[in-house]
Amino acid sequence: MKKKIALLTGGTTGEWVVSVKSAATIAQNLDADKFDVYKIMLTQQGWFYEPADSVKIEVDRNDFSINLKGKKVKFEGVFIAIHGSPGEDGKLQGYFDMLGIPYTTCDALTSAVTMNKGYTKAIVDGIAELNIAKSAQIFKGTPYSLEQIKKTLKVPYFVKPNNGGSSIGMSKVNHPDDLQAAIDRAFKEDSQILIEEFISGREFTIGVVKLDGEITVLPATEVETAKEFFDFEAKYTPGVATETTPAPIRKETLERVTQIVKNVYLKLNCRGVVRIDFILNGDEGDFYFIEINTIPGQTATSFIPQQVAAAGMKLNDFYTKLIRETIG
């Protein structure tokens, strides 16, 4: 019997555009012999299934079912492909937990905590050989001292929304006088902000996933961009960034990185596929944790599909194993 899987896409943030592209890649690569896939679009207006041959059908949120030609369709699992809220911040995970429907991502608590960059860093701090940039966390509506921040942290700074994704609302500040403007910009995206010291070095991203009961680390990608940092444009505009998969890293460095990211996966109680961004400073020196993405992009040009290919796997097999591991 084929498993009925709901592929959930859309969302309520600026990242919904990426979610729709991710869902298209996933839909193309889910094994039609093993899964009956129903793509569900979640928007501010509602949750809908949009069959190709008829008008869209609203989802019954009491039990996450749809009524198709007079028959109730319930799902055995959900492939969540929503970046940002409510797919990545634990809200949907909590909803599915209450309904007893399994899903492909980290659980509600891990999803909620890892959306907050500051809290995540506090948890992973202490993992062997993992370093964290010095930072300050500020909250909208709570007094903060600009002068104190400037005294404590060295320029340049990165100013980023604590719960954002895709580098939306993020700035690199090269002069202390520009800090306030960067804070104001970030506060348009979020009520909490992280201000971090800039770490120079090579930037990488690496997928980690549990498959066949084993934590598997995918080949790393090195990201180089002529821009000040890897922002939204660099992430989603072809040619703006150079991405090399697998990254040219020495074997012993890769072994160290592999152990660190496995420990991050375990410490944060991850499940499904996650992506960890990090910097190696100097000559493949200290590992600096940047952030973790618990619903990484799956668009045709995204890192995870690149890394799966570099590992010698087909996306079809990868998604099948991912569903078996998380949904059963």
Automatic annotation (TrEMBL):
- Could you say which EC number(s) this protein's record lists? 6.3.2.4
Q: Where in the cell is it found?
A: Cytoplasm
How the cofactor is bound: the record states: Binds 2 magnesium or manganese ions per subunit.
Q: For binding Mg(2+) 1, which residues are annotated in this chain's numbering? A: 277, 291
List of residues binding Mg(2+) 2:
291, 293
Positions of the ATP-grasp domain: 124-324
GO BP: any one term: cell wall organization
Which key words are in the record? ATP-binding, Cell shape, Cell wall biogenesis/degradation, Cytoplasm, Ligase, Magnesium, Manganese, Metal-binding, Nucleotide-binding, Peptidoglycan synthesis
Q: Which SUPFAM superfamilies match?
A: Glutathione synthetase ATP-binding domain-like, PreATP-grasp domain
RNA-binding as UniProt keyword: no
Q: Which domain of life is it from?
A: Bacteria
Query: Which reaction(s) does the protein catalyse, per the Swiss-Prot or TrEMBL entry?
Result: 2 D-alanine + ATP = D-alanyl-D-alanine + ADP + phosphate + H(+)
**Catalytic machinery residues:** 15, 166, 302
* Pathways involved: Cell wall biogenesis; peptidoglycan biosynthesis
Q: Which cofactor does it need?
A: Mn(2+); Mg(2+)
Which InterPro entries does the UniProt record give? Answer: ATP-grasp (IPR011761), ATP_grasp_subdomain_1 (IPR013815), D-Ala_lig_Van_CS (IPR000291), D_ala_D_ala (IPR005905), Dala_Dala_lig_C (IPR011095), Dala_Dala_lig_N (IPR011127), PreATP-grasp_dom_sf (IPR016185)
Which GO MF term does the entry hold, naming one? Answer: ATP binding
A GO term from the CC aspect: cytoplasm
Q: What does this protein do?
A: Cell wall formation.
Sequence similarity: Belongs to the D-alanine--D-alanine ligase family.
Name of this protein: D-alanine--D-alanine ligase
This protein's species is Pedobacter heparinus (strain ATCC 13125 / DSM 2366 / CIP 104194 / JCM 7457 / NBRC 12017 / NCIMB 9290 / NRRL B-14731 / HIM 762-3)
Gene encoding the protein = ddl
